[in-house]
Amino acid sequence: MGFSRLAETTAPAARIGLGLAAVGRPAYITLGRDRDLPADRTVEAMRRRSQELLDTAYVHGVRYLDAARSYGRAEEFLADWLADHPEVRDVVVGSKWGYTYVADWRTDATTHEVKDHSAAAYERQRGLTDALLGDRLDLYQIHSLTPDSPALTDRALHERLAALAAEGVTIGVSTSGPHQADAIRAALAVETDGAPLFRTFQTTYNLLEPSAGAALVEARDAGRSVIVKEAVANGRLAAPEAAPAAVRQVAEETGVTPDAVALAAVLHRPWANVVLSGAATIPQLRSNLAAATLRLNERQLALLDGLVEEPEAYWRHRAELPWA
Predict the structure, then answer these.
(1) CATH code of 131's domain
(2) Which residues form the domain of 66?
């Protein structure tokens, strides 16, 4: 049924999805992982953590689950959870291809993932995803599309993606980098047999980096769905001691934590279908979920809107975050 299945859910938490980037591999660029995860991040320890998060998310109404080929064993962990819960048929499962995880479960690897948007990479990774998720896959996205990606012009790849769409899988893109708006608009123009190819857009958007907002409005106006990732800016907007003063002020006023304020600010955008939580702990997930029912007033939203950074500066800062 594809990503549109989420429209059938009414729980507020259904607008929050669970992303598995933080728990599918031992190292990532989210701040605070040294206190969020066990020091011995074995495969089994991370599998247990992912299962606990998935259990909690589902019980609290989360219905979109997000993985990727480059998230270490995230697809495997998600497949295990689905197999252990055959009665769960009302979740939407998304994954991504285009990056290969190469760190071999090491936190000190020089390179953690390698990008390849070729048709050959799609065929290889699609087979791996299919072996794990099979017919549970609802949404398959190109991972971190940028304006210079060959995936925007590769007609052979478009035909392969259209064939998958004909099988009932929604086709989308995720974007990253300072020129996300350009990538979104280029992807909106891609068609196969006169029909739009890409139906969902998963984009970095937060209080520090909202530059893709106008393009996302265009996507929604064109009938596409929007998933927001990195709403807490890889932890920069989440830590009580490090979040910007405006976020901490609104958190104090509303009685929630800074991460909930950052997520709620994005949920106030009417074009945002789903906003991802990247929680690595159960308490983090619960505080993230408080955003689903948090209403911010106009003064608070205006205060938060003053946190914007220049896109180039934001993405330089992000690139400097350590894998830990």
Answers:
(1) 3.20.20.100
(2) 3-320
170-175 and 139-145: which strand pairing?
parallel
Question: Where is pLDDT greater, at 4 or 22?
Answer: 22
What's the predicted TM-score (pTM) here? 0.97
Tens-place pLDDT, residues 84-111 = 999 999 999 999 999 999 999 999 999 9
CA–CA separation, 204 vs 65, rounded Å? Answer: 17
Q: How confident is the model at residue 7 (pLDDT cuts 50, 70, 90)?
A: low
In total, how many domains does the chain have? 1
End-to-end CA distance of the chain: 37
Residue that is written with structure tokens 């004909």 in the block: 166
Whole-number Å distance between alpha carbons of 66 and 88: 16
Whether 198 and 173 have beta carbons less than 8 Å apart is answered as yes
Q: What is the Cα–Cα distance from 264 to 295, expressed in whole angstroms?
A: 7
Three-state secondary structure string covering the chain: CCHHHHHHCCCHHHHEEEECCCCCCCCCCCCCHHHHCCCCCCHHHHHHHHHHHHHHHHHCCCCEEECCCCCCCHHHHHHHHHHHCCCCCCCEEEEEECEEECCCCCCCCCCCEEECCCHHHHHHHHHHHHHHHHHHCCEEEEEEECCCCHHHCCHHHHHHHHHHHHCCCEEEEEECCCCHHHHHHHHHCCEECCEECCCEEEEECCCCCCCCHHHHHHHHHCCCEEEEECCCHHHCCCCCCCCCHHHHHHHHHHCCCHHHHHHHHHHCCCCCCEEEECCCCHHHHHHHHHHHHCCCCHHHHHHHHHHCCCHHHHHHHHHHCCCC
